[in-house]
Amino acid sequence: MPLDANLKPPPRRTVRRLLLLVALVSLSWSLYQLPLNRVIERRLCREYYSIHDPSVADPDGTVREEFCKVEPVQQGLGRIQGVMETTWVVGDFLMTVPLVTLAERYGHRPVLMLNLIPRMFLLAWTFAVGYFDQALPLNAIMVAPLFSVLGGDCVLNSIVYSLVASSTDDDVLRATFFGQMNAVSSIFAYQLGPALASASMQRLLWLPLWIGMVLLLLAVPVASVLPSTTEQLHHRQGSSLDDGLDDMTPLLSPSPRKPSQSFAESVASRVRMAISIVTSYPDNFTLLLCGFFLTSLASSDTKLLTQYISNRYKWNFTSVGYLLSGKAVFNFILLYFVIPALLRWRRAGPHRAGHAISGQQKLDDWSNISCAHICLIFSVLGAAAIGLASTIWLLIPSLLLYALGIALPMFTYSLLRSPAMSPSKRDIAAAAGAGGGVITVGSTAQIFSIVMLVKTVGILVGAPLMAVLWVYGVGVGGIGLGLPYFVSAACYGLVIVIFSRMRENIHDPIP
């Protein structure tokens, strides 16, 4: 397939719109994190000192942030954050299939707009609990994550990444798009977001929350101009994607169904289809799903990074925000410029000449797995170094080392479109001939929905696990504070073993 066919304006325009949507949502979410930590900590701190040492409080009843780094306050903060994160993920996970079914019936746009409502409520409710502290108890803040039943990160990422994956069949261009998506998410969630939150919090604690609500309102018109279905995207691109999708059954695009089929039956049908795909696909696909689960679990440690730095090094949240912004600059340069340039160089290299298409595909698979291995090694070393860093000057290079592993999704998502991850025509024919049933071949949207569900399960396990480890580490103190990062390093190490097994299943591509 000529590369020019994949460079038409429509897919790039769609990806740019998706990038803008991700930027707005990521920035609003990042603006929510720092004020949330401070709102909870401030309330806990006031309650603690009203009992143990009322003289610490100022005349207006507030307690300065430097007095709030005591063990009981930080343990309470960790517990509430863990409950909120788990509640958000549970609602998101339970409603992913029903909301995906709604997207199949009515298109992506209404589901994406619905996804903005719980995010808006989180920001507004955090402001309400913090501002009306005499009227609302602190535990009321845990109500907001319940609204994730209207859609959370799993639903959003399922739609966004399936549209990105469907935008081109070129491996390098697709990996570049994934890298751009991760880069934009990184710069707005971890660079611009913390910096803007820190700067605005210095003027007024509630200002980041108000800015976040405005950004979510701006996301509404962006979502309204996206392709309603993946079928529309394919139609705009002509026949460039048809060869790879002929045998696929769409999940997020309109598909034939019985007129009398109820919504509940549609949901049950999608669940059965997902189970059929997972059970009938090759071992490589199962191994890749295990890798997604473990990396998602391990990455839950990033939610604790603000609390970790603030508690271990006695920094206030505003200073932590600026530090995380500096780290994210490195992430952005790596994902948006360095890695895509290396991928283009690899694609144009003379070592690819002369290989058959199947050999080139195996070479791509090996290359993706090898690059994933490198990212995982950086993640193991970086997570362990963060846990061991006893001073802020040791933490900074540890954060940069950890950041080198951020390119991992570029290669793991690219592997999802590999023939080695799906049943071959021979396997399908053999299963049908043996009378063993039909092997279900999923669409790009179906596969990405399954992956996002698996990643959500990883977060569902990781969020409470990291919260428990953090609370225990706060009690131990010192190096015990790094316990969540040691567990993350172990999870990343296990993924290296899993990917090694996957590479053994793909024979040497060099003839």
From TrEMBL:
The keyword Transcription does not apply. It is a multi-pass membrane protein. Keywords: Membrane, Transmembrane, Transmembrane helix. Signal peptide: none annotated. Its main location: membrane. One of its GO terms (cellular component) is membrane. The keyword Thylakoid does not apply. InterPro entries: MFS_trans_sf. The chain crosses the membrane at residues 15-34, 111-132, 138-160, 172-192, 204-226, 281-300, 320-345, 366-386, 392-416, 428-454, 466-499. This is Uncharacterized protein. It comes from Podospora appendiculata.
